[in-house]
Specification:
Blueprint lengths: L2 E5 L3 H13 L3 E5 L2 H10 L4 E5 L7 H11 L5 E5 L4 H9 L4 E4 L4 H31 L10 H13 L6 E4 L6 H11 L7 E5 L5 H9 E2 L11 E2 L1 H4 L4 E5 L6 H13 L1 E2 L8 E2 L3 E6 L3 H6 L5 H7 L2 E4 L10 H15 L6 E2 L1 H9 L5 H15 L4 E2 L6 H5 L16 H19 L4 H8 L3 H10 L5 H10 L1
Parallel strand pairs: 1-2, 1-3, 3-4, 4-5, 6-13, 6-14, 7-10, 10-13, 15-16
Antiparallel strand pairs: 8-9, 11-12
């Protein structure tokens, strides 16, 4: 039952409206002056205030001012027999939900009250969803107790409430976007948009339009004016994912937007001021890209004011049991399955595995196990072959013999996975990238590094010699 407070100095009006709204199922409180109204607003759980403007001593406008100050989400509808357009405008500017002139139609008043209550309900739902959103994107939701990940959390919290640009680097699947979101929702920009754009997912001409927007007629297909992500994210944060995939020309335009704090739409001439915090994300070595000329050094230093490197899962093995249990609970609950149990032997296998796809690969594996396995206890035969192939003896997972070469070992493992993914995808590079969880540029780099050139490429090279 929703509660309505009706304020009017005419008893006949109070009695009439009380009967009307009680018949609709509302609980009605009444007051004949502002002081009584203030008391009821403070002491009762009022959902809407319906008040006459003209009252003895303090007016309905005073009630509106008091309500806006003490309970800003409480809707107020004003009634008056002395209504003018100027008075209505003044009331609405002061925060009134709506305004009706006496003598009024009862059905019209009922509609206005209904809309006011719906507005309150939507505001309450919006507040609830925002709280859930903030909670979902807190650092506490990023699982990990290792020193390396805690160092990331500590630095992120320190810089969250600044406007400094942030460059987050790390391998695919390490949780870079989660950290970027947590920084935004911990900052004073949290109530403004967090906008994410993958720079590697669009060709150059479309990427420029997505970033800066375009005017009608700027190119074929531009039939309306369109806002770019810089405008959409105004007063908020813009996450540029895979920043290393951006073309040199687009890099110049992004650099200019950062320097001038303004943008120009594709095909437009007007400068549009924007207030955006940039959080860039990459799994590539931008310093190496600067050396080979594919990334601008001046843009790098604009983006790299604060640098965060997310460690790969293999460097935070103490977090693996936490992550395994976290994903088990998540997917057992989601699929309505009994909680699975991981034996110490299986956990050692998880800890010994290289995890080239990092947390994303671990989560996908746990989801697959929960979906397929009916047994409550996870055993070796529940695990995919690639996991078992990496470590035949879990008790020797961390043994290192003299002369061990970490870089060589990691390269051998990486080469094995790239080759297996290429075979599985029948040399389809797009499918191979998806299997490995890396972008096209990174895949090409690994193919060249490990001399895994496709036969068609080798044939073309031989044919040109």
């Amino acid at each position: 039952m929703e509660n309505i407070l009706i304020v009017d100095d005419e008893k006949g009006i109070l009695d009439l409206l009380t009967v009307v709204f009680q018949k609709q199922g509302f609980k009605v409180f009444t007051a004949m002056n502002a002081e009584k109204a203030f008391t009821l607003i403070n002491e009762e759980d009022i959902d809407l205030v319906l008040t006459d403007i003209k009252l003895p001593q303090k007016s309905g406008m005073d009630i509106l001012t008091y309500t806006v100050k003490t309970k800003p989400n409480l809707p107020v509808v004003l009634m008056t027999a002395y209504g003018t357009i100027n008075q209505a405008v003044k009331a609405l500017k002061a925060g009134a939900t709506d305004y009706i002139v006496k003598p009024f139609d009862i059905e019209e008043l009922q509609i206005i009250v209904k809309k006011g209550l719906e507005r309150r309900s939507l505001q309450a739902e919006n507040i609830r969803l925002k709280k859930e959103l903030y909670k979902k994107n807190e650092f506490e939701n990023i699982v990990g107790k290792s020193k390396k990940i805690q160092d990331v959390f500590d630095l992120s919290k320190k810089i969250a409430d600044t406007d400094s640009t942030v460059l987050i680097s790390g391998e695919s699947g390490t949780g870079k976007e989660m950290v970027a979101r947590a920084i935004h929702y911990l900052s004073r920009r949290r109530d403004k948009p967090f906008v994410s754009l993958n720079c590697g997912a669009l060709p150059e001409n479309l990427l420029e339009s997505e970033l800066f927007g375009h005017v009608k007629g700027a190119f074929t297909g531009a039939v309306i004016n369109k806002k770019g992500m810089f405008e959409v994210a105004d007063k908020g944060s813009l996450m540029l994912d895979e920043i290393g995939e951006m073309s040199p020309l687009t890099q110049v335009k992004v650099l200019r937007a950062l320097q001038e704090k303004s943008i120009r739409k594709v095909g437009g001439t007007q400068e549009i001021p924007v207030d955006v915090r940039i959080i860039s994300v990459t799994n590539q070595n931008l310093k190496e890209m600067i050396k080979d000329g594919s990334f601008r050094e001046d843009l790098f230093y604009r983006l790299n004011v604060i640098s965060l490197k997310i460690p790969p899962l293999r460097e935070r093995t103490e977090d693996i049991p936490l992550l395994v249990n976290h994903f088990l609970k998540k997917y057992c609950l989601k699929m309505d399955r009994k909680m699975k149990r991981i034996t110490p032997e299986i956990m050692k296998i998880f800890e010994a595995y290289f995890w080239p796809g990092n947390i994303r690969e671990l989560e996908n594996m746990i989801e697959r196990i929960v979906a397929i396995e009916e047994r409550e206890t996870i055993t070796r035969d529940c695990l995919p072959h690639e996991l078992l192939g990496m470590q035949s003896d879990p008790d020797k997972a961390h043994e290192i013999s003299p002369g061990f070469d970490l870089n060589k070992t990691l390269d051998e493992i990486s080469r094995q996975y790239v080759k297996e993914a290429l075979d599985r995808a029948k040399n389809n590079l797009k499918q191979t990238s998806d299997i490995l969880g890396i972008n096209y540029r990174s895949l090409r780099y690994l193919i060249d590094k490990f001399d895994l050139k496709l036969r068609s490429e080798k044939s073309r090279q031989q044919g040109t010699r």
